[in-house]
Write a structure and sequence with these properties.
single chain; 109 residues; mainly alpha; 0% strand; flat; membrane; SMK killer toxin resistance protein; transmembrane helix; transmembrane; Pkr1
């Protein structure tokens, strides 16, 4: 004799969306050392800063130059510049390290 299944016995499985290969690679790459030099991450950061600047400028126009929004715009621009400067310095250090390794290899030969 077979017992009919009730709704409690049945397990509902919904299909899980699988991330695309490039999405998974990018997300796993964010947490690795040196990921701040990845061009995709830099593009996303620039886009986020540009969008934030657009929103803040729009709000400043709508509020007729609210001093608080102008201060936020200055802070945002300084933060954006400091991130760009930091990435530039990382690239300089990385290229200097590569050049010194090449120079050391040439001396050994």
């Amino acid at each position: 004799m077979q017992v009919p299944q009730t709704h409690i016995d049945m397990e509902v499985k919904s299909p899980q969306p699988q991330p695309s290969p490039s999405e998974g690679d990018f997300l796993s790459n964010i947490l690795t050392p040196g990921s701040s030099l990845h061009p995709t991450l830099q593009l996303i950061l620039d886009g986020a800063f540009a969008l934030l600047l657009f929103v803040l400028v729009g709000l400043a126009v709508m509020t007729r130059g609210n001093v608080h929004l102008l201060a936020l715009i200055v802070i945002e621009l300084c933060l954006w510049a400091s991130v760009k400067w930091f990435v530039h310095e990382l690239q300089k250090v990385q290229s200097a390290g590569t050049q010194s390794e090449d120079h050391a290899k040439e001396k050994k030969e």
